[in-house]
Amino acid sequence: MKKKKKSGGTKTLFRLLRYLAGKKYLVALVMLTLTLSTVFDVISPKVIQKITDTIQIEEGVHIDMQQIGLLLLILTACYVISALTLYVARRSLVIIAENTAFSMRQKLQKKLEKLPLSFLDSQKRGDILARLTSDMVTLTNVIQTNLSTLFTKLLTIIGILFMMFITDWKLTLIFFIMIPVSTLAMKGITKATRRLFKRQQEAVGELNAHVEEMITGNDVMRAFNYEEAAFETTRNINQKIFKTYLSSRTWSGLIQPVTTLLNNLVFIAICVIGGVMTVNGVLTVGALLAFLLYTQNISGPINTFSSMLNQVQSGLAAADRIFLLLDAEVETEEKESGEETTFSGDVEFSHVKFGYLPDQMLMQDVSFHASPGQVFAIVGPSGAGKTTLVNLLMRFYEINDGSIRLDQQNTREMTRDALRKHMGMVLQDTWLFSGTIHDNIAYGKPGATREEVIAAAKKAECDSFIQKLPDGYDTWIDNDTGALSVGEKQLLSIARVVISDPDILILDEATSNIDTRTEILITRAMNEMMKGHTTFMIAHRLFTIRNADSIIFMKDGDIKEVGTHEELMAKGGLYAELYLSSYA
Questions:
Q1: In DSSP terms, which residues pair with 504 in a beta bridge?
Q2: pLDDT at 438
Q3: Does residue 519 surpass a pLDDT of 70?
Q4: Which among 24, 42, 424, 546 is placed 20 to 30 Å from 516, CA to CA?
Q5: Distance of alpha carbon 300 from its chain centroid, rounded?
Q6: Domain membership flag for residue 331
Q7: First-to-last CA distance in the chain?
C-alpha cells in the first residue's frame, strides 16, 4: 500500500464526489436549496438599496409608505426563505454524509474480508482501525459541513460579484484587485497545509497502533517493566502529532489574516472613491450603501472559503488513506461452481515452492501425500514453516510453484469458500467474539441447536466449566473477558471446530495453552474426533503426536524427515535429537 502512487487533491476530490453521485436526487435537492438560499441572501442588499433610495427623496415630497412596507415585506421574505432553504440543505447533507460514510464502511469491511493475509500481516492493526474510525469521521465532517459551505460561499461570492457589477462596475473593478493576490496566496498555503495534514493523519494512525498494542499486551508490558518506555514512545508520537498539527495550523492560519488585510484595504479604497462619486452625483447614497454592504458581505464568504479549503485538505488527506486501503490488491475473484464437493480427505503436496517475498523462497520443494483418515504431525524448530504449510493448504497464501491437491483436484481450481468449508482449524492464539458461549461454539455451525452445542462442548471437555458459569451457555463473553482462563478459551475454540465436523482437521498448537491434565482429556477427545478425518497437527509437545500415522520434521522451510515416531527414533536423526532433548 505504501508503494502506491499518491493521489492528487483534485483526483481524490473527484473520486469522493463520485460516491455522492449515487445519491443524485438528494445532491440535486441540496444544490437547489443552497442556490435558493444564496440567491435570496444576495438580493437582500439590493432591496435595502431600494428602500434607502425611496426614503432619500427631496423635501416636501410625500413618502410612499405602502411601497416601503411592500419592500420591507419582500426583504423579510428573502431572509425567511434563505433560512428555510438553508435548513433543508443542511439536513439533506447530514443524510448524504452518513449514507456515504455507511457505504464506505461497508466497502471497507468487504475489502478487509478479501484482502490477503500477506497484506494484513504487513499493516499495523491500529493504523487500519484509524482509517475506519478517525479518518472516516474526518471525511464525514468534510462532506457534511465543509463541502456544503464551500459550495454556498462560492455561490455567494459569484452572486455578490454579479450584484456589485450591476450596482457600479467601476467600483467592482477596484474590488477585483484583491482576487488574484488572494488566489496566489491561497494556492501556496493550501499546497503546504495538505502535505502537513497528511502527515498528521499518519501520525494519528501510528498512535492508534501503539495504544492498541499497549492495551492488548498490557500484562507483558508490566511484567517486563516496560511502562516508562511505552510512555516515552507515546510521548514521542504525541510530540510528532503536536508538531505536524502546529505546523499545519500555522500555515492555514495565515490565510484569514492575509485575506482580511486585503479586504480592509480594498474596503477603505471603495469608501473613499465611492464617497467622492456620491458627492459628485455619479452614485446614489442607496447604491453606495448597497455596494458597501456587498463588500462587507463578500469578505466573510471569502475568508470562510479560504478557511474551509484548509479543512477540506484535512478531509482529503483522510480520504487518501481510506482510498489507499480500498485500492489495495485483493485475492482473485472466484466463481462458485454451484456443486457441493465432498472430500475423502486425500491431500497431496507436489513440489511446492513458496516465499513471502518473490526473491526469498521459504519452501524450495515440499512434497508429501496424506491418505484419507491419516493423522499427520508436523514438528520442527520455530520458524521452520510448520504454520506456513497449513496456511498454504487453506489458501491463506498462494504458492509460487507446484500444486496442492485434494482428492486429485488442484486447490487453485477450487474457490476458497468451497475449500475452507471442509476444513476446521484450531489456532494457538484463541479468538472469541462478543456474544454468548452458545453463539461462540455455534459459530462453527450456524443454526446449531442447544443439544448440538452441548454435545460439542462435552467432546471438547469444556461442558463442566461452562455449567459452573453464572448463566451457563448463555454467559456473555468476548475475547478480552477475564471470566475465562486462556485454557478455557482454547477449549471453546476446539468445541467450535468439533461442532463443524470438517473433513480435514488442522490443529496448530491447539493444546499449547492447556494444562497437562486437560491436555490428556483433550487429546483423548481429539483422537475420537479424528477418526475418519485427515488431520494435520502442529505440536511442540512431542509426546502428544507419538501415535500419529506419519510425522513430518521441517527445518528452514523444507521437509527433512518423514515417518512414524518409531521409525524416526530408530533413524536417530533430527526428530530423534529433538525428542530426546525435550524428554531427556
A1: 423, 534
A2: 92
A3: no
A4: 424
A5: 36
A6: no
A7: 49
Q: How many domains does the chain have?
A: 2
pLDDT digits (tens, 9 = 90+) for 311-362: 777 778 888 888 888 888 877 766 655 455 667 888 999 999 998 877 788 8
| Cα separation, 182 vs 302, whole angstroms | 9
Residues 378 and 546: beta-carbon distance below 8 Å: no
In a domain, 431, yes or no: yes
Question: Position 406: which residue type?
Answer: L
449 and 358 housed in the same domain = yes
Whether residue 67 is found in the same domain as residue 195: yes
Residue 173, classified by CB atoms within 10 Å of its CB into exposed (0-12), middle (13-18) or buried (19+), is exposed
Residue 347 pairs with which residues in a beta bridge?
370, 406
449 and 559 in a common domain: yes
Q: 205 near 131, Cβ under 8 Å?
A: yes
The three cell numbers of residue 455 are: 454435545
How far is the C-alpha of 368 from the C-alpha of 413, rounded, in Å? 20
pLDDT of 289 reads 79
pLDDT digits (tens, 9 = 90+) for 178-204: 666 666 666 666 666 767 777 777 787
pLDDT, tens digit, 9 for 90 and up, residues 27-42: 888 888 888 888 888 7
Instruction: List residues bridging with 350 in a β-sheet.
Output: 403
- In angstroms, the CA 239 to CA 227 distance is 18
Bridge partners for 561 per DSSP? 553
Bridge-partner residues for 354, per DSSP? 363
Q: What is the torsion angle, in degrees rounded to the nearest 10, for the CA atoms of residue 353, residue 354, residue 357 and residue 358?
A: 30
Structural domain of 179: 9-205+237-326
Here the cell at position 427 is: 489456532
